[in-house]
Amino acid sequence: MSPDERSGRAAWGRTDAAEDGGRSRAQTTQDFAFGISIFVLAAVFVVTFVPDVTTPFATGITEVEQERSQTASRLLVGNVSDDGTPELNTSRTDAFFDRSWADGELERALGLPRTASVNVTMRTADPPGDIVMDHAIGDAYRQQAGATSVRIVSYDDTVYRLEVRVW
Prior knowledge:
Layout: H1 3-6, H2 17-20, H3 28-58, H4 63-80, E1 87-88, H5 90-98, H6 105-109, E2 118-124, E3 131-138, E4 147-155, E5 158-166
Parallel strand pairs: 1-4
Antiparallel strand pairs: 2-3, 2-5, 4-5
Keywords: Membrane, Transmembrane, Transmembrane helix
InterPro entries: DUF7287
């Protein structure tokens, strides 16, 4: 009789190693390896895909895009105005917006690389937001993340917002 049986306690589910031939720990190594591999796969998944989930919220406008939009607006105002003042020359401004630009030509004229996308729009300053449709040129802007440079200019004795977007 075992000591547990003599004391009145049953040895629930316990067997001695000698009785079962040492088979009570049959798959410990395999179970451990399986568990560790599941853990490693889960850790790799988290490290790989979680940053991609937060990327749309973490990426912003780079300093390069900001500098490009400021440079483009400075060049534009300098080219279509008299002496670089905010008073735009009407004939030069109309010629700029009425011209049909070939692929990459507008970017080059504004000092941008060919891979950049650019949109130039003149909007009335009061009330803000009204687009003067015959004074918009460049790639279609669909609320992409990009740098915007705004200059208040005078065109034909009316105040406008000249917006240059680069993305």
